[in-house]
Amino acid sequence: MFWADIGKPKYKKEIDFDDLNWEQRSYAKWKAYGDSKLANLYFTYELDRKLKDNGIDTLVTASHPGWTATELQRNAGGIVEYLNGIVAQDITTGALPTLRAAIEAGLKGAEYFGPNGFMEMRGYPIKVESNELSKDQAIAKKLWVVSEKLTDVKFEFNKKAQNAGK
Predict the structure, then answer these.
(1) How far apart are CA 145 and CA 132, in angstroms?
(2) What are phi and psi of 144, to 5 degrees?
(3) Where are the extended beta strands (E) located within 8-88?
(4) pLDDT tens figures, 62-84
(5) What is the mean pLDDT of residues 122-144?
(6) What is the pLDDT of residue 160?
(7) Is 65:125 a contact under the CB 8 Å cutoff?
(8) Confidence (pTM)
């Protein structure tokens, strides 16, 4: 079983760059879900670095909803579906970390918000820490480059100083 919160230390698997689209290995829905959440954090932290490195005054933050009663868990079957009715918080509460990440005053960028309860599964939003793997700059840069190649989209960041007066 895999918790929705990949920021916890129990999710320690790296993304498989040799098979990002799960074409050569058996598809495992919770592993794929975990990979996507880990990739979201890599992109968050890498985008924040790129913006700061280029003098662009924009903040990038991340959040996770904890265990929230969504269609993902309702259709998971088995123990996950059963526990959803007992453990999950409602969608309004689950949306609060995203709202706080978007409007919190005084943020510097690359902050991560999640619920304040047991194992960050439920509760009101606070700043939390993602796992160490999600902060690996080399993997984040690699995923950024691979994603640009796969999507044929290249992001150009122009330093403000280079554009001043033009």
Answers:
(1) 21
(2) -60, -50
(3) 62-63
(4) 999 999 998 877 677 788 888 88
(5) 95
(6) 60
(7) no
(8) 0.85
